[in-house]
Please model this.
Amino acid sequence: MLQEFSEKEHLRKILIPNQKGGFECTVWHTIHQLADDKIVIILKEQEYFTCPMALEKINKYYEANIWMTAGFVYDLVNSQRLSWQDSYDLLSKVTLRKPSLCCLQPISFYAWLFKQIKLQDFIGPDNKFYTHAFFYAYTYPLVEMAQSHIACCNDLVITSEKTEIDEEFIYQQEIISGLPSYQRLEAMKTISKQPEQADLIVFSFDRPLQLYAFLESVECYVQGLSSVSVVYRISNKEMKKAYKKVKKRFTSVSFIEQSLNRPKADFKEKTMNAISGGLSNYLVFAVDDIIVKNYVNITDCTRFLKMTQAHGFYLRLGTNITYCYMNKRSQNIPELFSIENIYAWRFRGAQSDWCCMNTVDMTIYAREKIVPILENLNFTYPNDLEGEWCNSANKYGDLDKLGLCYEQSKIVNIPMNQVQYASGCRLSMNISVQDLLKKFQQGYKIDIKSFDCIENNSPHMEYMPRFIDR
Model:
């Protein structure tokens, strides 16, 4: 790809290596690396401007409140180029996505405007970037968002060899035309590049030994958390004493205890209070039988979430996850595509763990997207929170969204015992709660170092840990 800049009368060229996803992925990624106020022009091979000093002329348009420039709008019904006023009247009716109606030639646009387009709208059913109709994947949203902030540049026409309209082009254009339209923007909407942390909320019930190990693994391997809160439940006085020892060790963690007599009645209230107590724009949920097995910086995850507008970043998934422990069967890895060092996929058509969008197993979500949904759910403990939340995905048509993960999973669940008895849950290793409590009371802890970069083919793995002195 060639990125061009006008500096007085000189042209500076920077060669940018292609991403693995090809030209279209490279264009998308490069624009996201630009400052929001940069003006972008996409020229493919053998495309050129038909007038001299084109870049200088384009810059002048942006001295007004213009977000995008266009060469012309062509009325395909009447076979004529429209005046700009007629073009605007046409576009303001949000009819652009009807492929038989008109054809727009965008020339330039602000980087920030392009960044508002969701990555999922560039990705076809095959989980790859649109190639033949990539032009339409960004043209439709740009025009829909900019509308009155578009300037017509009749003398700045881009000329190229005629694009062959084949069956694949028509197929891709029809899909893109059927996607939801973008809302018109009333003002510029920039995206902050400041690193963003997340608030971690942990659920625990009668598992002081496992909770200790989880918090220790977070302390050892995880960066980028602004706060850690534990919503916990106990069933007797011995458990209460054990949790006091956990509190004493992890003094920076906020512990929120459920009532002994009515824990199910106050679980949602305690959970929502923990959520509202955080200050970050991102949330992570976890349960106490998780071990973090490798280093992860949450600010890297939130950066990619902002860039892609994906549904979540899944630390429990990676190319090593080929078996579903909960369903006792193998699972295919969906078609993945890479952006820098992370992978993305579409939930629709994925199997088992790969299609589970809403989970309390260490997934980073944007607060503004999930809190309104959680507020409207009825749940009394972590299992039905996750269950109701998963059901909401089908209700809101979320399966067309994208998920993100690293090449290798960063966590693993060690289901040594079961404390939440719910339909569909496996008993796992079935070690008694009392035996594990006794280990903790004797001064032992789980050796989290034995899980360093462990190779697990499922998010859950039966594994007898090594116990060492605390």
User: Anything to note?
Assistant: Confidence is low (pLDDT under 50) at residues 1-12.
